[in-house]
């Protein structure tokens, strides 16, 4: 584009990929702010153009190209003015014939401040990456969803106490939070910025019975059984999960089912939330972390069932249904999702990368060490994903990666999904040149998931048309 007196630059989708743009001696008086979108540009030639002095001064500084592009992006007008609404997708009508309780669940990776850097998100103006700006959009998203249960990942410790817990307590929630394991090892100042997982619940609908933290590095150490991969690969990652055992308050059951349920015992539900290791090269670690988490969740449920003397109508131990929210950092075709949704995975699954895990994995088998002798690692839950069959094309939307890695799973047969919040219109993203998030209108690189679930309450079918009191 030398010496050709072009006064304007074409806006093009593939413009983002430019590495070099030479506009020397083009009689350019002004540069379009759209240049700021070329965040991958290494070389920008502007010599011999009658540009304004402040632009030239910036350009001539050390690392001038980067500084000029950042200035352009930061001053680029934001269009359109607002996001379109995400659609509600009804999946099932509520069963009117049997007593049920209905509640909503949100799962959201909020992108903590520490990871929201220009190195990772060069396409986002710095003012829109700033936590003071993003936190408003994040809280707005959470408050507008108004879910009964909220699971968040990447919550910084200090922000949990000063922002999330404070704001949500005012709206009738209580919460539980745990930072990643490294929080124990760092200074008090650094600890504030260690991120972790949080679960909030509306206290008018649920009361807290127990809370649990699951530290994957501790479990890896305790169950290594001499496996080097377990010690060198799994134990070195400090991801965690949290779980809360909640009791449904009588009001939500009677209100929802329209029936008086005086004779009913406690109805409990376990809500679990985890954030698995991020690196695509560590599919084995993600799978082992997921197995460890589910195995711990099973222990929590079994212990609670015994200590609270619960047994389901059918006598099986899973009297406590499970809602599992997670950023699994794993796609729907991964071993992690296969394991969760089919009830097990083969020891030789490619995601284990032919590393020697098998001896340690039997500790996490649903029947324990003496489980089946074949090479499958199984779990006893019947889990389904609320967003099955590609209802969301992606939950994580960045320039380099777009895919589904966040999930809400729920256990059958007690739980059903009635509906979900659908995706942001993909055409809208393309039409508005939104090549990745965060974006001035989208405060995280993840979209939130939101599902309405129905819990089937224990009841006895009528005998000769007479309803007997529900017993367990």
Features:
single chain; 472 residues; alpha+beta; seven-stranded mixed β-sheet; six-stranded mixed β-sheet; globular
Describe this structure in words.
The chain is of the alpha+beta class. The chain is built from 13 helices and 19 strands. The strands form 5 sheets. A 7-stranded mixed β-sheet has the order 3-18-19-4-5-7-6.
Kindly report the average pLDDT value: 88
Q: Helical element count?
A: 13
Based on secondary structure, the structural category is: alpha+beta
Low-confidence stretches: 3-13, 313-317
Estimate the strand proportion. 15-25%
User: Main sheet, how many strands, which sense, barrel?
Assistant: 7 strands, mixed
Q: Can you lay out the helices and strands and say which pair or pack?
A:
Blueprint: E1 20-22, E2 43-45, H1 53-60, H2 64-75, E3 88-90, E4 100-109, H3 126-129, H4 131-145, E5 149-156, H5 157-169, E6 173-179, H6 188-191, E7 195-202, E8 206-215, H7 216-222, H8 228-234, E9 240-248, H9 250-257, E10 268-275, H10 283-307, E11 322-327, H11 335-342, E12 344-346, H12 358-361, E13 376-378, E14 382-385, E15 396-397, E16 402-403, E17 406-412, E18 415-421, H13 426-431, E19 449-456
Parallel strand pairs: 1-2, 4-5, 10-11
Antiparallel strand pairs: 3-18, 4-19, 5-7, 6-7, 8-9, 9-10, 11-17, 12-13, 14-17, 15-16, 18-19
